[in-house]
Amino acid sequence: EVQLVESGGGLVQPGGSLRLSCAASGFTFSRYWMHWVRQAPGKGLVWVSRINSDGSGTSYADSVKGRFTISRDNAKNTLYLQMNTLRAEDAAVYYCARTTYGAPEYWGQGTLVTVSS
Amino acid sequence: DIVMIQTPLSSPVTLGQPASISCRSSQSLVHSDGNTYLSWLQQRPGQPPRLLIYKISNRFSGVPDRFSGSGAGTDFTLKISRVEAEDVGVYYCMQATQSYTFGQGTKLEIK
């Protein structure tokens, strides 16, 4: 059974940093592209970042470029999102997702990031 | 950036009746490899999103056959042949042809 479990969310002050993790199991993690998608309370889905299967290629939404870094450790079956210089508008539930043919097939339950002083 | 526009934003439907959601992209979603990377997702209240349809019309594993997708180029449609109570939630289209973009979401509710 495919499982994605996010962790690392919490309360952080504006300008602060946070590192999210997504632990994968039930599939060969190193074969799949992975994504981070966020959802502010009561709002829609917003794509944040993606990384290819071996970690050599990444892309970001303009809103997070230069502040967020996606990475992965295929030996540990774990995806990461390093978030720096956090802003109030970054507050959201962050989901990791596995994609095939560009479609997000499997999602984690999400981890909540709150940015407030 | 490709913009995805969904209509309607809210859809009250009677149980057992059909429902339809449209999604229009600001430019063609046909990739240089010939595929069209348009997906539909469902998000039930309090749940993470769930993939329903990928590449316009392919149902994902375990998705009931009352869900179907169609379209081409810039215009796409998700149809539910007979709405059931468990279909309540928000539906999103998503493109992965040029970066990734979601539609605003369409809330499906029962009349």
Condensed summary:
The complex is a heterodimer of chains A (117) and B (111). Chain A has no helices and 11 strands.
Secondary-structure element pattern of chain B, one letter each: EEEEEEEEEEE
Radius of gyration of chain A: 13 Å
Q: What pattern of helices and strands is seen along the backbone of chain A?
A: EEEEEEEEEEE
Please give the alpha-carbon distance between the first and last residues of chain A: 40 Å
How does the major sheet of chain A shape up?
7 strands, mixed
> Helix count of chain B, per DSSP?
0
Which segments of chain A are poorly predicted (pLDDT under 50) over 5 or more consecutive residues? none
Helix and strand composition category of chain B:
mainly beta
Biggest sheet details of chain B: 7 strands, mixed
Helix content of chain A: under 10%
Q: What oligomeric state do the depicted chains represent?
A: heterodimer
Describe this structure in words.
The complex is a heterodimer of chains A (117) and B (111). Chain A is globular. The mean pLDDT of chain A is 97. Chain A is mainly β and 117 residues long. In chain A, 0% of the residues lie in helices and 55% in strands. In chain A, strand 7 (68-73) and strand 8 (78-83) form a beta hairpin. Chain A contains no helices and eleven strands. Chain B is mainly β and 111 residues long. Chain B is built from no helices and eleven strands. In chain B, strands 2, 4, 5, 6, 9, 10 and 11 form a seven-stranded mixed sheet that branches. A four-stranded antiparallel sheet of chain B has the order 1-3-8-7, with no helix packed on it. The A-B interface holds A 35, 37, 44-47, 50, 59, 61-62, 95, 97, 99-110 and B 1, 35, 37, 39, 41, 43, 48-51, 54-55, 60, 90, 92, 94, 96-97, 99-105.
Write the layout of secondary structure elements.
The complex is a heterodimer of chains A (117) and B (111).
Chain A: E1 3-7, E2 10-12, E3 18-25, E4 33-39, E5 45-51, E6 58-60, E7 68-73, E8 78-83, E9 92-100, E10 103-107, E11 111-115
Parallel strand pairs in A: 2-11
Antiparallel strand pairs in A: 1-3, 3-8, 4-5, 4-9, 5-6, 7-8, 9-10, 9-11
Chain B: E1 4-7, E2 10-13, E3 19-25, E4 38-43, E5 50-54, E6 58-59, E7 67-72, E8 75-80, E9 89-95, E10 101-102, E11 106-110
